[in-house]
UniProtKB/TrEMBL annotation:
It comes from the Bacteria. This is DUF429 domain-containing protein. InterPro entries: DUF429. Pfam families: DUF429. Residues 224-248 are annotated as: Disordered.
């Protein structure tokens, strides 16, 4: 089976925003001036990176820096709590607590919960457990490609949308027509309506990629551009350099 990422002709993409999807991963890749934005799909995160060696910054909607767990730390990340506070209800529910790193070795949800309780005092949510395979990929990629450390950073689409929305989290869920329309409007204001329309159509015919995945990847791309331009924010705002943070 040919990786979908290989079916897209290359262009000079320098920035990327990435989200997980049922097909694997989806990336919004853009050139320096964002005159061209495409959505590309890869069965693995490594395949996306391999196909776009010119990309200097990868903003990814996935935990990157994980807590070690007790006794080294509390097993919970301040950035997750800060993101929920920043977004407010109801979008705070979109931020799941990242698992302590040893949880990635668990072979079942039950085992993951036992480890999580021991390391953080909390069970792992079902949503977080469903993300574990993707988090494993991120960790493996950073080991295999250490040059990506710092260039591949964590973001969260809802924080990006709040930044585009005057600092306010979007009340309507992305699963609703109203929520999707609001997010597409904000993306159009960020990148241009024509660019977003073309990008949304660029994965037409590729299965297991939802419109929500496309929209989230495009939001992550906005974080990559702001990071390049020195305009990003982060939670927590006062996080020391060695602490996990979410950039938006």
């Amino acid at each position: 089976m040919t990786d979908p990422a290989r079916s897209v002709s290359s262009f000079s993409a320098t920035l990327a925003g990435v989200d997980g999807c049922r097909a694997g991963w989806i990336a919004a890749v853009g050139d320096a001036g964002m005159s061209t934005i495409r959505l590309v799909v890869g069965t693995s995160l490594a395949s996306l990176v391999e196909q776009h060696p010119e990309v200097t910054l990868w903003a990814i909607d996935m935990p990157v820096d994980l807590p070690a767990g007790k006794p080294q730390d509390e097993g919970l990340r301040d950035c997750d709590a800060a993101a929920r506070t920043r977004l407010g209800w109801p979008r705070s529910s979109s931020v799941f607590s990242a698992p302590p790193k040893p949880v990635l070795a668990a072979q079942s949800y039950e085992e993951a919960c036992e480890l999580s309780v021991a390391l953080s005092g909390q069970k792992l949510s079902v949503q977080a457990w469903n993300l574990v395979p993707k988090v494993r990929e991120v960790q493996a990629l950073l080991v295999e490609r250490p040059e990506l450390v710092g260039r591949l950073f964590e973001t969260h689409p809802e924080l990006c949308f709040a930044q585009m929305n005057g600092g306010k989290g979007i009340e309507a869920s992305k699963k609703t027509p109203e929520g999707r329309a609001t997010r597409l409007r904000l993306l159009s204001a960020e990148f241009g309506q024509a660019a977003i329309r073309r990008a949304m159509a660029s994965t037409k015919g590729i299965k297991q990629v939802a419109n929500d995945d496309k929209i989230d990847a495009l939001a992550a791309l906005s974080a990559a551009r702001r990071h390049r331009d020195g305009q990003t924010r982060q939670v927590p705002g006062n996080a020391p350099p060695e602490s996990p943070r979410i950039v938006y």
